[in-house]
Amino acid sequence: MRTPAAEVRQTGRDSMGVRLVNLDDGVSLLSVTKNGEDEISPKS
């Protein structure tokens, strides 16, 4: 799953972060990796 940084809304310092996806019960996220915007190919 990829989400361009431009699609993530900015938050203030008092926030708890931004939720990108809701996972079903029993589903875990294994890792997160930051890619540079220039490394991501444009959507077709």
From TrEMBL:
InterPro entries to which the protein is assigned, alphabetical: GyrA/parC_rep (IPR006691), Gyrase/topoIV_suA_C (IPR035516)
Species: freshwater metagenome
Gene Ontology molecular function, alphabetical: ATP binding; DNA binding; DNA topoisomerase activity
Protein name as catalogued: Unannotated protein
Gene Ontology biological process: DNA topological change
